[in-house]
Specification:
The complex is a heterodimer of chains A (92) and B (85).
Chain A (H helix, E strand, L loop, with lengths): L2 H24 L4 H25 L37
Helix pairs in contact in A: 1-2
Chain B lengths: L8 E2 L11 E2 L20 H7 L15 H7 L13
Antiparallel strand pairs in B: 1-2
The chains are: A mainly alpha (92), B mainly alpha (85).
Chain lengths: 92, 85
């Protein structure tokens, strides 16, 4: 996967984790949904590490850094050039 | 008075699409949300693109022409005889 595909997959998994969290808030005993949620969070964490190893830190305070300090390398996540373009059918 | 009576809930709709649950004889000025059931989720990129991970919650806004909306209006629907002028 290239940088944009990696970031899109990670963003999508984090989005699913939030959506499943909302479901689980009102369905706390749904073991199938909890299992799916755990699976998604695990996959997201693996992808996050992979992304940061290749492309640099995603956060200024939770990511490890090589020397020199990598966070000052732009673009930052809130800049347009950082993001990927998602098509209607979910392509990147 | 009504919602607690199981006879008032039509459970014939698909368990994956609780929006189609039909409630009968419910009280006015109260909201009712059918209880969602877990029926799987979409693939990650499709979820992100559609704004929900749940197939049964995907309900994009369908734009219609204003003139069509006007012609579909049924005046005084549900008001019974009070409609007569």
């Amino acid at each position: 996967m290239n940088r944009n595909q990696l970031l899109a997959q990670l963003t999508a998994l984090d989005f699913m984790a939030v959506d499943l969290q909302l479901f689980l808030d009102s369905h706390p005993c749904d073991s199938e949904a909890i299992s799916r949620y755990n699976d998604i969070v695990s996959k997201a964490n693996i992808l996050r590490s992979e992304y940061e190893n290749i492309c640099g830190p995603l956060t200024s305070y939770r990511s490890t850094s090589n020397c020199p300090w990598q966070w000052i390398d732009d673009p930052w996540p809130w800049q347009g050039s950082f993001n990927f373009k998602l098509t209607r059918d979910g392509g990147v | 008075m009504y919602i607690n009576n199981p006879e008032n809930i039509d459970t014939s709709a698909s368990p994956c699409i609780p929006q189609e649950t039909v409630l009968r004889d419910v009280q006015l000025a109260a909201s009712y949300v059918p209880f969602q059931f877990f029926c799987g989720v979409m693939p990650p990129l499709e979820s992100l693109s559609k704004g929900t991970a749940f197939y049964e919650l995907y309900s994009p806004y369908q734009k219609r022409e204003f003139s069509n909306l006007e012609s579909e209006k049924e005046p005084c629907q549900g008001r019974g005889n009070q409609c007569d002028e």
